[in-house]
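ok so i was messing around last nite and threw this chain in just to see what happens. nothing serious, just curious
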Amino acid sequence: MIYVLYGEATEASYLRLIQIATQHPNHLKINLIGQHTWDDLYLNLFSEDLVESQKLIICENFLKDKKLNFSTDGSAVLVKGIAKDKTVIFHEKWQV
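result:
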């Protein structure tokens, strides 16, 4: 499942992020912020962990910082290939 939370009402989008996270109590939670790249997202989506297979991956400002480029870097393939046991939240602090 993919969620995109964005807008100038950052408090409301953050509360929605918390609500989604609490709906997945058994998922391993991974925060990708600042210095993390497209490669980090790719590795977290497609690597197999020994302990947890269900993951909730939160990507902060990946769209604003242009860490995903659907025309050149394979991001479209990445998004289409997300497994059912993984949830990705793109949390943007600006208007998409």
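not much to say yet. The first strand starts at residue 2 and ends at 5.
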